[in-house]
Amino acid sequence: MTDKTPLNANSLKELPSSRVYADNAFEIAQSPGLTRPAQMTTEPRNNRSLLFEEASEWLIRIRENPQSADTRATFEAWRRTSSDHEQAWSDLCRLWSATGKAEPFYRPLAVSSKPKAMRLPVFFVPRLATALAIACVSALAVFFAAPSLMIRLSADHVTTTAEIQTIRLEDGSTVQLAPDSALRIEFHGNVRQVALFRGEAFFDISKDPNRKFRVIAGGAEVEVLGTAFDVHVTEAATTVSVARGSVSTIARNARSDASKSILAPGDVVSIDQRSGVTTKTLIAADDVGAWRQGRLVVSNATIESVVNIISHYDTAWITIADPSLGEQRVTGIYDLTAPKLALGALVDPFGGKVRNLGNSVTVISRY
Asked: Bridge partners of 5?
């Protein structure tokens, strides 16, 4: 039996967050009715957010009239107004080139039907503003959010973005499957075994002295009699944390005999998928599987790794444009029921900004 449960924030305490910055370029470009401010400013301004919005507006105008000499001349005049204007335009170009392959915003006016070598003008810059690019990014987001065909064929239970499933097994045990996860059940005879192909799951196992319960997850095996624990599988590692009882873990790819660990409540072990090397830490037992209540609890984790977890609770494709920002480490609690606010709270202490390019792309940067 399976229950599908959407996340909700009714029982959660509101968490502090920074302002979530939105870039209007994709939203305006994809909306049925295109609207603009009556006039753009030509006076120098230090407000980078407002200038970024104006740069986005220029992107839209250039898309609509790529061969217009008037548009080109007016745009160049705006860009030369001040170094702040130039910086806003450069920021926009860097953000978009960070999310896809660069192509020009617009080409110079054609003067001949025959192609000939020419030097690119200064306004020949990267962009991700064409409808084709938007479609490609959206398609990629859908592709990466959905489980692969092989996993779909192999798994008994698959969740999508922001979906949680509660699975009741025939022995009375329950499994709560986190978003973007896949699980196969292998019960037969005296064997109680499941395989977690991807994602995360919280297990509450009924005690059976005659049959151990086993979880195969990446490079790790977990064995229990009756207990509650969480397993999280990524490309890099399998992490097991215990909420109640005791758990035995085995690193399947370990090159030494010290591959087995016995975990008690609050113990966390991370097993490297390639080497089998294990790392052990401690957390509060009550925080094990906190994602079930819409909370993400992290300790000394990189922003990049936290963003990757939050991305499973947001339908947008999320990218970090500044690699150095992704390398920063954080400790805290984040609200998974409000992914955009969680991202803002995550990067705000480091001067980071969250910009939504329509409904399909979210870009995190320091500019």
From this structure: 164
Distance (Å) of CA 282 to CA 5, 28, 229, 234: 29, 47, 14, 20
Where along the chain do its domains lie? Answer: 7-21+294-367, 36-111+118-129, 149-293
The pLDDT tens digits of the residues spanning 237-287 come to 999 999 999 999 999 877 665 678 999 999 999 999 988 889 999 999 999
- Looking at the predicted structure, is the pLDDT value of residue 83 above 80? yes
Alpha helices in 48-119 (DSSP H): 48-64, 69-79, 83-97
This prediction has a pTM of 0.64
Q: Which amino acid is at 251?
A: A
CA–CA separation, 243 vs 232, rounded Å? 14
Longest CA pairwise span in the chain (Å): 84
Contact between residue 220 and residue 238 where contact means Cβ atoms under 8 Å apart: yes
Q: Coil, strand, or helix at residue 6? A: strand
Q: What is the number of other CB atoms lying within 10 angstroms of the CB of residue 100?
A: 17
- Antiparallel, parallel or unpaired: β 213-217 and 191-204: parallel
What is the separation of C-alpha 216 from the centre of its chain, rounded to a whole number of angstroms?
25
The helix/strand/coil state of 344 is helix
Q: Which fold has domain 149-293?
A: Jelly Rolls (2.60.120)
Q: Which tens digit of pLDDT belongs to each residue from 126-136?
A: 334 443 444 44
| CB 233, CB 200: distance < 8 Å | yes
Instruction: Report helix, strand or coil for 224.
Output: strand
Separation of alpha carbons 140 and 131, rounded Å: 14
How far is residue 74's CA from residue 247's CA, in Å, rounded to a whole number?
A: 68
CATH class (in words) of the domain with range 7-21+294-367? alpha beta
